Amino acid sequence: MHTLLLKLGLRFDDPHDEKRFVRQFTLDDLGRTQAAMVLGAFVYCSFSAMDWILSPDAWAVATAIRLGVALLVLLPATLLLTRPGARPFAERIYLVYCVVPGCMLSVIYVFLRPSFDHGAAGMIVVILFVSTLLPLRVPSFAIFAVLTWTCFALFETIATHDNPGLTLVNNAEIGAAYALSLYGVGAREFRARRQFRTTQDLQVETERSEAALAELRAAQAHLVQAEKLAALGQLVAGVAHEINTPIGLALTTSTAFDHHLGELRRSVAAGQISRSQLTRSVEQLSEGTRLIFSNLTRAADLVQNFKQVAVDQAIEDRRRFDVRDWLVELMSTLGPLLRRKGHEVRLACAEGIVLDSYPGALAQVVSNLALNAVLHAYPDGRTGTLAIDVTRLDEARIRIVFRDDGRGIPEENRLRIFDPFFTTRRDKGSTGLGLHIVYNLVTSTLQGRIELESGEEQGTAVTIELPVAVA
């Protein structure tokens, strides 16, 4: 039987899956099933009216049997399913609920005369109810069919008949009803099993996809962080290169300063210093002091600006800031890198534009756009001009336009330019996350929108509209 059910698709190989399916199948929509069971008890008792029509003298006994079955079996079985501890035995409860009234119906027909001549109709009603309204599987329904049909045939042999030929007709009709109902129950169970298997497979694939997505997000987060660190690393290299100049000049000047001071000290010690020599020495020392001061001030400003930009990019704090002053600080850190590669930077920003937003995210956006332009817009050592224009659209919005006059973006790449991991220079170490980070920061963190326009050998313009105050 087990092998047959497997071949028919009415059983699972895995006992764990079989147990889960049976529990789900028998308890699915339990409230509806219990309502059907109450309705079945009512219909079972209401057929006492038919008993009165068939045999008024035996009506009291028949009605007592029907009420006894309803009160002692049908309704208690229905109530028993409300207890969580009884639900693992739900199919057995359903079987008792079906078999007892089915067998007792044959007992009732013994008292009604000539009841078995009309017994097929009552049994078919019971079969119809069991096969359509209760979640019985094929084995359970087969048990129900064997027990109730055996009981019907047994009691039919001891009953009186006005027409003995109806015995064959009754059993043929009941047998046909059992066969059709068995097929219906089997088809319903087969569909339920197939749906269960599909759901299980879908759940497994969903879990696998979620696990893969989690890994992908972790990898993307790692790459995004690496991209940020790489961008910051380029800023560090540019700032370090730029700081070398004023510090080197200051060091050279201080060396000359020390030399002139030594000569002046020796002249004073020898008592051979003239007014013109003293004047010249003072002028030289004064010029050296000015050069040292200006170069060290320049280096300090670079360090301070870089420190502010680095802090802004590392800490996602919201604060109010003047866009023009902030942009000057940012470009003082980006400028060395851009100028070292021969590029010119032009800024145009009206005074008095103040944002209540995230300067770190905005710095990351501008930095990525600048570094992306340097890397992609000017290949083979070409140089050009990068322009940043900031204007106020209204009281609530500003517009930032970042332009380059580089080679532009091919048409086939424009629609994919903000896609994660899309790059045309993967062989050069690009990850394809720079502009994807820009898009996410603008649309999510900064709550704005971004558009890109470009043409081959016509440069690229990235337009960003931002709210003055993020929500």
Automatic annotation (TrEMBL):
TM region(s), chain numbering: 35-53, 59-81, 93-112, 118-134, 165-185
Stored Pfam families: HATPase_c
InterPro entries: HATPase_C_sf, HATPase_dom, His_kinase_dom, HisK_dim/P_dom, HisK_dim/P_sf, Sig_transdc_His_kin-like_C
A GO molecular function held by the record: phosphorelay sensor kinase activity
Histidine kinase domain residues: 238-470
Record CDD domains: HATPase, HisKA
Protein name per UniProt: histidine kinase
Catalytic activity: ATP + protein L-histidine = ADP + protein N-phospho-L-histidine
SMART domains attached to this UniProt entry: HATPase_c (SM00387)
Taxonomic lineage of the native organism: Bacteria, Pseudomonadati, Pseudomonadota, Alphaproteobacteria, Hyphomicrobiales
Superkingdom to which the source organism belongs: Bacteria
EC number: 2.7.13.3
SUPFAM superfamilies assigned: ATPase domain of HSP90 chaperone/DNA topoisomerase II/histidine kinase, Homodimeric domain of signal transducing histidine kinase
Ranges in a coiled coil: none
Keyword flag Aminoacyl-tRNA synthetase: no
PROSITE patterns: HIS_KIN
UniProt keyword terms in alphabetical order: Kinase, Membrane, Phosphoprotein, Transferase, Transmembrane, Transmembrane helix
